[in-house]
Structure formats: C-alpha cells, structure tokens
Amino acid sequence: MRVMLRAHIDTQAGNEATRAGTLPQAMKKLMEKIKPEAAYFGPSEGVRSCWIVFDMQDSAEMPPLLEGLFMELNAEIEISPVMNAEDLARGLSQMQGA
Fold first, then answer.
1. Pairing mode, if any, of strands 47-55 and 38-44?
2. I need a surface site. Which of 5, 15, 17, 60 has the fewest CB within 10 A?
C-alpha cells in the first residue's frame, strides 16, 4: 500500500544531529530502507520536516523503518495511506453503479 510518512524532527535533536553530522546519515539510511517513490524536505510547523511516499507491504514494517527517527531525532511521525491520480481514478471507477 502506498503511504505517506510525515515526520517533524525535534529542533534540539535535529541541531545536535546536524552538528555531529549524523542527520544526513540518518536520512540516507531511511531512504535506503524504504526506497521512496518521492521525498520532500523543508520546514513545517516551525521545525525540520519531511514528507516521504513509499510502498508498505505490511504494518509490521513500521518498527524497523521508523525507530531510528524516534530514537535518533526525537521525531513526531504520522503515516497515512495515500493515492496518486491513477489510484484515485481506479478506485472511483469501481464505484460505478454503487
């Protein structure tokens, strides 16, 4: 299932990781694990944030994928199912006559 991960990185933890040079390593490790369809980074709600779209086959994937963000960056994380335009069109076509 296509999902979007939204993470807000704690400012203090993000500052420490930036100074130590571990923030780029943490992001690279995450990208290698999830192989995203798309990834965006920027400020949101006053903190470093990322929005990453990737395929998750099983909810049991969450702990190994996300614990690094929690533990290393004290991140606040949300994961939501999402659709692209093709998915939406396919889903809506299944509603014909419903």
1. antiparallel
2. 60
3-state SS record for the chain: CEEEEEEEECHHHHHHHHHHCHHHHHHHHHHHHHCCCEEEEEEECCEEEEEEEEECCCHHHHHHHHHHHHHHHCCEEEEEECCCHHHHHHHHHCCCCC
Report the candidate in 50, 40, 96 with the shortest Cα–Cα distance to residue 73. 50
Closest CA to 52 of 1, 4, 2, 9: 4
CB 6 within 8 A of CB 49: yes
pTM: 0.89
